[in-house]
Design goal:
With 155 residues, the chain is mostly beta strands. 14% of the residues lie in helices and 42% in strands. Strands 3, 4, 5, 6 and 7 form a five-stranded antiparallel β-sheet that branches. A two-stranded antiparallel sheet has the order 1-2. A hairpin with a 2-residue loop joins strand 1 and strand 2. The longest helix has 22 residues.
Length: 155
């Protein structure tokens, strides 16, 4: 009787093991079996960014002193290259204005060769404004100044 109980018990364990193995659910995926491999997805990730407008103006000089200059020919007696760098991710205009007490002299004392308006620029740009001071014998002695103003404005 013990053998019968033992054999019956083993039979139940084996059958239960087979049923459990045969009826175990496969690993769950949200997708399909494609080419013998599970494929889940596709899943989307939406990435957003708000890009701000940015406008930058950089000048290589903010104060320039030409020092004491003597009248002389040939002109100019003094020159300087000023770098005017712009960076903008929007269309802009670069403007330049000059206010000086050097006007009205027979020999133009101060000159600057960068255009007064550079329209519709964008990205990174590098310009050079060449300053020159020419002192002729018709220039009265004294102190003179010029202020050059650059402005970068979004269109």
């Amino acid at each position: 009787m013990k053998r019968t109980l033992m054999a019956g018990f083993l039979a139940v364990v084996l059958v239960a093991g087979l049923v459990t193995t045969a009826t175990a659910a496969p690993q769950s995926f949200s997708g399909n079996l494609v080419g013998g491999k599970w494929q889940a997805g596709p899943g989307d990730v939406v990435v957003t960014a708000a890009v701000n407008p940015k406008v930058e103006l950089t000048l290589s000089e903010d104060l320039v002193d030409a020092g004491a200059l003597d009248p002389d020919i040939p002109a100019p007696q003094w020159t300087l290259a000023v770098n005017v760098d712009t960076a903008a991710n929007v269309p802009c205009d670069l403007t330049k204005s000059v206010v000086t007490d050097m006007d009205g002299i027979a020999t133009p004392l101060f000159e600057s060769d960068l255009a007064a308006l550079i329209a519709d620029i964008r990205g990174v740009n590098n310009y050079t404004d060449n300053y020159a001071i020419s002192v002729g014998y018709d220039t009265d002695p004294g102190n003179y100044s010029a202020t050059v103003t650059y402005t970068l404005v979004q269109r």
